[in-house]
Amino acid sequence: MKYTCSIAMGPIDQLIDIAKTAEEVGFDSIALPDSLFFMEQAAADYPYTPDGSRMWNENTPWVDPLIAAAAMGAVTSTLHFYTNVMKLGSRNPLLLARQVGSVANLTNNRFGFGVGIGWAPEEFEWCGVPYQRRGARVDEMIDVIKLVLGGGMVEFHGQFYDFDRLQMSPAPTQPVPFYVGGHTDVALKRAARVGDGWTSAMMTGAQLADTIATLNALRTEYGRAEQPFEFQAVCIDKFGIDGHRELAAIGVTDNIVIPWIFDGLGFDAPLGKKQDSMKRFADTYIHSGWQDT
């Protein structure tokens, strides 16, 4: 099982040093969250908390995840990065293809594209994109971005996007993996059908076990059971070595964690304390040898 450190809601001026420390102590990846803006009044509930409330406010810091990946990639050499997840619905697929391809090239193929739809109607409407039919539009966006990233002269004539022959150079030298987020039936089907992996929001171990079983059944149904597939999990109730063993046993391949939160610190804790938490976590889990027993 791999370990990914999430940098959600942390001060932007800490990110470069966190990336350096993550690579130094042995994390596999950095997970990069996405949020465009904070709307004072939200038309929809946030889907990943019990009461629908947002876990952040108007002053919570966010950074564009693609820009962050490029910046953090420039000061590391082995650490991977992935968006967790970028909300595609309010964006343009050709612009995203240009950006994703650039990040993949600048990081020497150390970037994975975690994708979702987006939950807030305001993010769509205020960016000039209709909220209606968002799922079908995102499905087509994924097709467009994969096509362009594959390189060469391509064209696309779909229901939502239509363009004649074009090429973006240079294409990434390796395929960019796509990790699909979401807990709904439609999202799980999308992950099984077109994804190189699935990424969770906050879930219990039991919920993760059920979801992974569902995804494996869907992958078999789509004829993709033998293809490599990542299960990236944010688990809220499996801790300690035994808890991590349980996650590995149910099929989690990538455990997304925030070490300083486990140590009782806040998202805005001082950099030095976060680095100490990362080192303790690595000693306890990454380098303890529990996966060899």
TrEMBL record:
Pfam family, one: Bac_luciferase
Stretches assigned to the Luciferase-like domain: 10-231
EC number: 1.-.-.-
UniProt GO MF annotations: alkanesulfonate monooxygenase activity
InterPro entries xrefs: Lucif-like_OxRdtase_Rv2161c, Luciferase-like_dom, Luciferase-like_sf, SsuD_RutA_monooxygenase
GO biological process: alkanesulfonate catabolic process
Keywords annotated in UniProt: Flavoprotein, FMN, Monooxygenase, Oxidoreductase
NCBIfam families per record: F420_Rv2161c
Name assigned to this protein: TIGR03619 family F420-dependent LLM class oxidoreductase
Organism: Mycobacterium simiae
Highest classification ranks of the organism: Bacteria, Bacillati, Actinomycetota, Actinomycetes, Mycobacteriales
